[in-house]
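Below is how a single chain appears once it has passed through the pipeline. First comes the sequence as given, then the structure the pipeline wrote out for it. We keep one example in the README because the format questions we get most often are answered faster by looking than by reading.
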Amino acid sequence: MIRQTLVADSADLFALNPDLDRKALAECYARTGRVRIYGLLAQGAVELHDHLRERDDWIQVIHAPDAPIELTRDERIAMGAKRYARIEDGVNRRGRDGFQYRYEALRVPDLDEPLDIHDLLSPLSHFLHSPEMLELIEDITARAPHLFINGQATSYGTGDFLTGHDDNAAGENRMAAFVLGLTQRWRLEWGGLLLFHGQHDRTAEALVPRFNTLDLFHVPQQHSVSWVSPSAGFPRIAVTGWYSTAQS
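Resulting structure:
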């Protein structure tokens, strides 16, 4: 069952770390097109992590040729091992040569939706649109963000991955991608690495999942998430999405 967390004003749940070195972060972003911020939140990271770990309404999302496949945990159990193995075989085949993903997700509510007292992703949405967060994003990217869009919590378990892509989506005016890391005690050998691809995919810069970090990077930029090993002791949890600019 979802923990019955009562949600008050989002300002009471989430707070930015006041000691972030914005100048250094902006310099890194300007030089490389991306930056990892350690200790993003002064308040709320532990509560959000615990809330997401306790939820049982995660939806497994799988890229497929005609339309994405979406399965609840109960649906995966009910379909049986043989039928699910056929789906998994398709995931692996398509991952060899084209775009493919498999992981679990929960949608971050849009800003205009009513505040949900049982879902910490709801006040998180308000926090991500707060003047403090918008100011931080602008200070780092030197561009004025308009909205946080297409947000989702993600949980990568054994065998989950996301192949290379650049996040460019027609009509969405994405300016920067956002990954709020909420993963504790992760080992590099477990995979689930955020990979930034070098020229012609010959090299990559890898970032290990960490807790209370923000990876912010400009769009478009080729990246992927590596396959999660069966050795992983628990899921790789994050909240992802994009900051967009106002439509011209």
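The chain has five helices and 14 strands.

See the next section for the split statistics.
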